[in-house]
UniProtKB/TrEMBL annotation:
<dbReference type="InterPro" id="IPR043129">
    <property type="entry name" value="ATPase_NBD"/>
</dbReference>
<keyword id="KW-0808">Transferase</keyword>
<protein>
    <submittedName>
        <fullName>tRNA (Adenosine(37)-N6)-threonylcarbamoyltransferase complex dimerization subunit type 1 TsaB</fullName>
        <ecNumber>2.3.1.234</ecNumber>
    </submittedName>
</protein>
<feature type="domain" description="Gcp-like">
    <location>
        <begin position="32"/>
        <end position="152"/>
    </location>
</feature>
<dbReference type="Pfam" id="PF00814">
    <property type="entry name" value="TsaD"/>
</dbReference>
<keyword id="KW-0012">Acyltransferase</keyword>
<dbReference type="InterPro" id="IPR000905">
    <property type="entry name" value="Gcp-like_dom"/>
</dbReference>
<dbReference type="GO" id="GO:0061711">
    <property type="term" value="F:tRNA N(6)-L-threonylcarbamoyladenine synthase activity"/>
</dbReference>
<dbReference type="InterPro" id="IPR022496">
    <property type="entry name" value="T6A_TsaB"/>
</dbReference>
């Protein structure tokens, strides 16, 4: 087994290789505006670090979000392209689940990432491997009652200390955690879904309401 994992659902552009026993190479850079520019060089970097070629990969793992439309689609389209070119399966893993795995907490907690527009993408967890709620998006003040008293991880939690007073790192997901989680699930026979994006809301870019189509007479 050699899984190539990647995620662009948060400001982190993160890539890792997992050989079925451990993560053998990884790279993470935080830049919310350069996902498309940074992702493929990061893939090249982890392959070079491991001394392997892309055609050695036996499966792809992609973070499915939730996340902003533009950043998220970079990773998902790249994963699909690799899978098609190599003829290998492409597995989807929720980005929030990857953050929960990296947090490695025993008791109940919350994962919250920055959704912009003064909102967070969030979900509750029983432990680092068990999600209790479906990923959702909302204003911190509106979900305060649902997360009260719980530790929280992720950039969204760190941004809103009034709602998440027990917030701490990790701030962003790592592909290494996604890869570990995927390997664990595959080993117990779980069928991982195809990577379909969790957008949860419409893109930030919108057609102006009073847009007029001008056609030649």
């Amino acid at each position: 087994m050699l899984l190539l994992a990647l995620d662009t659902a948060t400001p982190a552009v993160t890539v890792a290789l997992h050989d079925g026993d451990d993560v053998i190479a990884s790279s993470s850079q935080v830049d919310a505006r350069r996902h498309g520019e940074l992702l493929l060089p990061a893939v090249d970097r982890v392959l070079a670090e491991a001394g392997l070629r892309l055609d050695a990969v036996t499966g792809i793992v992609a973070g499915t979000g939730p996340g902003p439309y533009t950043g998220l689609r970079v990773g998902l389209m790249t994963a699909d392209t690799f899978g098609l070119a190599l003829g290998v399966p492409v597995h989807g893993v929720c980005t929030l689940d990857g953050l929960a795995c990296a947090a490695d907490l025993d008791g109940p907690f919350v994962v919250a990432t920055d959704a912009r527009r003064k909102e967070v993408y969030w979900a509750r967890y029983a432990d680092s491997r068990t999600r209790l709620t479906e990923p959702a998006v909302g204003r911190p003040a509106d979900i305060a009652g649902e997360v009260a008293g719980l530790p929280a991880v992720g950039a969204g939690a760190l941004l809103y200390p009034d709602t998440f007073p027990q917030a701490h790192e990790p701030e962003h997901v790592s592909a290494a955690a996604l890869a570990r989680l995927a390997v664990e699930r595959l080993r117990v026979g779980e069928e991982l879904p195809a990577p379909r994006p969790l957008y949860l809301r419409r893109p930030d870019a919108q057609v102006p309401k009073n847009y007029k189509v001008v056609t030649p007479k």
